[in-house]
Request: fold
Amino acid sequence: MSQCRRASVWRRPGGSAKVSDEHQPVNLELFDDCVPEPVQQELAPGAVLLRGFVAEQDGAVLGAVDAVLASIALRQMQTPGGRPMSVAMASCGELGWVTDRHGYRYERSDPDSGLAWPPMPEILSRLAMRAAAAAGYPGFLPDACLINRYAPGARMGLHQDRDERDMSQPIVSVSLGVPAVFLFGGLRRAERPQRIHLRHGDVVVWGGPSRLRYHGVAPVKAAQHPRLGQQRINLTFRKAG
Ligand code: MD3
Ligand code: FE
Reply:
């Protein structure tokens, strides 16, 4: 963790904080116990966490999500077993993920309206492409963006993502709003998952040998985010077709 006490060391009487000047040589020992959290972290082979990757783009990204949600409604779909999911979902892009009594699949149109999914805003596809490239997956071109909305208590059970055609393509996920504990399991369901805290602006790229790992989201705790209130929004970008 980065719990560094920075400014006080360098604050000059009556002046503004300054890292160093010719009268105050930098004392590197002051920073020896100050290890900043890495911005980019390999969670497992092929899975890369990009902390805060959305950064100051977050307003524009949320604006694009709002625009999509003005034309398509979030809905709690039924699992093949007939239970409503606690997560509310909607899609943009050429393909949208759906589930109902017939199973999980991608569709070219919204089964509720019969209309094509709204197009994927360029700011979203470009964010996903940049994140994939930063994580070592250049040339990623998503054709599906699933918007997952978690209200307090919503969760996602352990599952694999295997409805996409080409498993050599990664998945990019963008976390927005209140934090969540992401459960990152192994290639077998029985393997105990790692718990990874994902916060507003974090991006994770899942590919290579991690592409078929089991994963889920623990029940989201009530919290407040200045822009999203009690919600967590997760965007997953895929090359599904
Ligand atoms: C790890 N969504 O939509 S995204 C999903 O936060 C889904 O809404 C979760 O799982 C969410 O299918 C998690 C992170 C994620 C997505 C795909 C993965 C993690 C993954 C595929 C393989 C391994
Ligand atoms: Fe998933």
